[in-house]
Amino acid sequence: MTILCIALGTPTPTVTLYLGRHAIRTDKTRHLVTTLNNITKDMSQISCYAENGYGTPMQTSRNVEIEHKPYVKGPSPSR
């Protein structure tokens, strides 16, 4: 799963990606792109938090529902 956090501000904000209540990644950027590889049914909420020391820090969150494991089907093998 790829997560994209976009934040605006001058000076450049510090953006933190949270999985539940745990910080996964923090960087000083306007575009934080993170790929999560170990996806489980225990995931519930993903949040992006941005602040630059000026104005009001901003946060957005999304609830995540994992229904089943991914399934990839390729072409049938030739005989």
Description:
By secondary structure, the protein is mainly β. The protein has one domain. It has strands spanning 2-6, 14-19, 22-28, 31-35, 45-51, 58-63. The strands form two sheets. A four-stranded antiparallel beta sheet has the order 3-2-5-6, with no helix packed on it.
Please state the average pLDDT score.
Answer: 88
Decide which structural class fits the backbone: mainly beta
Q: Low-confidence stretches at least 5 residues in length (pLDDT < 50)?
A: none
What is the CA-based Rg, rounded?
17 Å
Secondary structure tally: strands: 6
Please tell me what the overall shape is: elongated
Q: What is the straight-line distance between the termini?
A: 35 Å
The helix fraction, in percent, is: under 10%
- The DSSP helix count reads 0
- How many structural domains? 1
The helix/strand series, from N terminus to C terminus, equals EEEEEE
Oligomer designation: single chain
Sheet with the most strands, sense and barrel status? 4 strands, antiparallel
Short summary:
It contains no helices and six strands. The protein has strands at residues 2-6, 14-19, 22-28, 31-35, 45-51, 58-63.
Question: Which keywords apply here?
Answer:
79 residues, mainly beta, 4-stranded antiparallel beta sheet, two-stranded antiparallel sheet
